[in-house]
Each structure stands twice: as C-alpha cells, then as structure tokens.
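Q: Please design a sequence for this.
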C-alpha cells in the first residue's frame, strides 16, 4: 500500500494544558539541587533547551483512546474495530502475522483491525505519524505569544515544583521520611505539532477525531500522575493540508483514488466524501488546505467511521 503515494495529509495540532503536566525524563536527576522527578527536555538547534511533548507519548495516549472508542465493534465485512488485547502475543493483529507465514502485504493489511490499520502493528506500518510538539508555533498567523521565544515558550519552561510524600497504605498516614518533589509544566500552556497521514481513508480522520474528543472531555489524559490530577489537556486540529496524486478537482480518500483491484486486495472499506475545498496544482499533485474547515473535515471523518460500525 505504500509503494505508491495516492494521498497524504498533515494535521496541524495544538495541545493545551488544562491542569499541570508531567512527562517524565525516565531517570532520577543527577543534580542534588534539582527535582527528584524531572520533565523531559530536548535541545532545539535554534531555540535552545525546552520542555516538549514527545510524539511517542502523544501517540500512545491517542491510540489507546481510539482503541477504547471502537473496541468490541465489528464491521459488516467482519473486520473488528480494535484488538481485544494488543499485547497478546497470540491474538493481536501483529502477532498473527509476525512469523511471515503470508508475506503478501495486501493479505496482511486486509486481516488487520481498524486501529492497527491506522496506527500500525508488528506486521505493517501505520498510516499516522505523530511528531514532537513544542511550546511555539511556526505558523506566521500565530500570535506573538506563540512565536518562538514568545510568552508561551517562557511560561512552558517556567516549571512548577510540587512536593509529594509517600502514604502508608495500611495506616493512611505519612510514611516517615519518604519525601519527593517533581517538576510540572504549568496549566494554560500550548504545544504545537503535527500528525502526518499517508494513503489514508476518510474514516481514519474520524478515528483520530474520536480520540481527540476523549482528550477534550478529560476521559483520556496525558503524561504521568494522572490519578493525582495531572495531565488534562485539550487537542485542537487547527489546519489540515491534504495532497493527492493526479488532477482530481476535490480531495479524496485513498479508496477513491486506488483501482478497484487494489481496493479488493487490501480490503479497503467504501470511501466517504471529504468536504468540497478549493485546490491548487503543486507539481504532480493537487493540494487542498482546510484552514477554517478543519473541524468540518473531522466531522466528515466521524460520519464515515459511524457508517462502518
């Protein structure tokens, strides 16, 4: 399915912290004067050292939320919404095919659940790639506060230090001497990043939208210490840039661009329509920009997803 590029899209995403957020660095700080539990940081070649949201951290939460939304659902074609247990080495989509008994890519793709078709498995590459999110936007339309070096970046790196203590599970009182502190990104900070889609169907936009709804409602949370009130965020798709091969005057999902033989081989579900959007010619492809229409595209994706289940 990836030997030829039919369509691709980049979703410009803004994630805003509603409560403080901590995505841990995964190790105890060596600085004796620093916090015991530190936030993950990276060094940007231009903007210096900064806190950020790793794409892998966001992908794990988005995938878990998407799978929870469609687990137990079955398509009319017999395909399931999501693996009952993605980590089960006998029943998950990837585990069934990792021995290479059937090496035909189309046969493997056809046998995968909806979630694994979008996010990938041990046997196939996913359609969605989530990139790191930083506390600034390179969009020229962004407010000065969100520009590199602006107030938002300064606020994100002005970390809160919260103190904690271990509680005795039997007595319910403080367990003597076991104090710790942790760094937190404050509430009200925005992070900007992208989700790239390749050879995608319209319903896959809807599955991403379903995951974002769980984040926005507070059902799904990001980072660590979620049971202590941390990690509530909102996710907003601010812009969608879609490109597709050929001269089709309107944006299409991959099933509308592939041949009928390929649709059958890969088990693609019937395609839904994307909202009418003006396009421009860019080399060998057509480009469509859904700026103010981004939410409309996600709505179309949700409608396409609901029609399958």
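A: Design:
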């Amino acid at each position: 399915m990836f030997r030829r590029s039919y369509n691709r899209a980049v979703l410009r995403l803004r994630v805003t912290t509603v409560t403080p957020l901590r995505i841990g660095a995964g190790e105890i700080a060596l600085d004796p004067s620093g916090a015991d539990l530190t936030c993950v940081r990276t060094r940007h070649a231009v903007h210096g050292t900064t806190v950020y949201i790793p794409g892998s951290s966001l992908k794990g939460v988005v995938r878990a939320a998407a799978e929870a939304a469609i687990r137990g659902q079955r398509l009319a074609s017999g395909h399931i919404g999501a693996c009952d247990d993605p980590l089960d080495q006998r029943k998950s989509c990837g585990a069934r095919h990792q021995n290479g008994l059937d090496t035909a890519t189309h046969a493997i793709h056809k046998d995968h659940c909806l979630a694994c078709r979008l996010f990938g498995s041990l046997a196939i590459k996913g359609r969605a790639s989530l990139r790191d999110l930083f506390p600034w936007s390179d969009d020229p339309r962004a407010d000065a506060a969100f520009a590199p070096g602006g107030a938002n970046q300064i606020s994100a790196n002005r970390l809160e230090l919260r103190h904690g203590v271990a509680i005795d599970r039997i007595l319910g009182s403080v367990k003597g001497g076991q104090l710790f502190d942790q760094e937190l990104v404050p509430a009200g900070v925005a992070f900007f990043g992208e989700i790239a889609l390749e050879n995608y169907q319209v319903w896959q936009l809807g599955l991403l939208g379903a995951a974002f709804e769980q984040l926005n409602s507070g059902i799904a949370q990001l980072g660590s210490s979620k049971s202590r009130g941390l990690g509530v965020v909102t996710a907003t798709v601010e812009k969608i840039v879609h490109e597709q091969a050929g001269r089709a005057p309107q944006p299409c999902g991959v099933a509308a661009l592939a041949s009928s033989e390929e649709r059958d081989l890969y088990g693609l579900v019937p395609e839904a329509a994307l909202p009418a959007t003006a396009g421009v010619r860019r080399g060998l492809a057509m480009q469509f920009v859904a700026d103010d229409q981004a939410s409309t595209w996600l709505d179309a994706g949700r409608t396409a997803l609901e029609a399958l289940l």
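Q: Thanks. Anything notable?
A: The mean pLDDT is 87. Residues 7-308 form one domain.
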